[in-house]
Design brief:
This protein is α+β, with helices and mostly antiparallel strands. 61% of the residues lie in helices and 16% in strands. The radius of gyration is 35 Å and the shape is flat.
């Protein structure tokens, strides 16, 4: 009996040791798995971060290139109009030549930008079909602009323009100077741009501009601007040139906030004909948006 107890004790000790061994092995395996999961998670996080950084960088580049291509198209149209004159003076010929040389520089710069985007995508090892398609579209648009300029140059060559000069690009300093002038001009235009609209509540509400808020059972509601309004709902105007806002209604209310001393409603034939902006600088100081409700 005593011998049996000893045997049982030995077996129990062995069982405990075996169980402890397997528990230890399981713990080590679990720790290894957890460590591997953490490493994989960290690696995935780094990949996602690199992908997001790549997308952000490329979106900025896309916007710049699209802006340049649109600018090239507008400049080309202006040059085409100037070139339609029967006889082109030497001064105008010089300006057209320099404008085309500036466009050549812009085309070359964007060609380099698109090539850099292609290299960046290839070297990143990240395959995002949307980005690749966007780069291809930009390349196609660039080729269209180059073809348009080739057509314009052929027209100008028939008007005694030197093709060698038309194919020249500006040196870097002059190119930067012209770009800076264009940037300043764009900023000036933006600063002098305002948005206005007038109409009945129903018309302005349909455009998503006005809404009625507050009140009780339809009584005492306040007319106010919607929180988010698209600029396309307004008429874009130049602050320096706009002196009046047409009204032609029995009553009118200026919904947006503007200093009272900067404007007045002008009545003709017993109705309000227009809102006269007597002090443009002061009128647009608080807001570049003007909304007039008519009744």
């Amino acid at each position: 009996m005593k011998k049996q107890n000893i045997i049982f004790s030995i077996i129990a000790v062995i069982a405990v040791l075996v169980a402890g061994y397997f528990i230890t092995v399981n713990l080590v395996e679990q720790k290894t798995q957890i460590s591997n999961l953490k490493s994989e998670s960290q690696s995935l996080s780094e990949i996602l971060h690199e992908r997001d950084s790549l997308i952000n960088e490329m979106m900025i580049a896309f916007n710049e290139i699209e802006g340049d291509l649109e600018s090239i198209h507008k400049k080309k149209n202006i040059i085409s109009l100037n070139a339609e004159d029967g006889e082109i003076s030497n001064n105008k010929k010089t300006k057209i030549t320099r404008d085309i040389q500036a466009i050549n520089s812009l085309l070359e710069a964007n060609e380099n930008k698109i090539a850099a985007l292609n290299r960046q995508l290839k070297n990143s090892g990240v395959q995002i079909s949307g980005l690749e398609e966007k780069v291809q579209n930009l390349q196609h648009n660039l080729e269209q602009r180059i073809a348009e300029m080739d057509t314009l140059k052929a027209v100008l060559q028939k008007k005694d323009f030197e093709i060698a000069q038309l194919n020249t690009v500006l040196d870097s300093l002059e190119y930067k100077a012209r770009n800076q002038e264009q940037t300043i001009s764009n900023q000036r235009t933006q600063l002098n741009t305002a948005y206005l609209v007038s109409g009945s509540y129903e018309e302005l509400s349909a455009k998503g501009i006005l809404t009625k808020e507050g009140g009780f059972l339809g009584i005492g509601k306040r007319i106010d601007l919607q929180e988010q309004i698209a600029d396309s709902s307004f008429n874009k105007v130049n602050i320096l040139e706009t002196k009046q806002i047409p009204v032609y209604a029995g009553k009118a209310t200026l919904i947006t906030e503007h200093p009272a001393q900067s404007y007045e409603f002008v009545t003709e034939d017993e109705e309000i004909a227009y809102l006269a902006i007597t002090n443009p600088k002061e009128f647009w100081r608080i807001s570049k948006y003007a909304v007039v409700e008519t009744k």
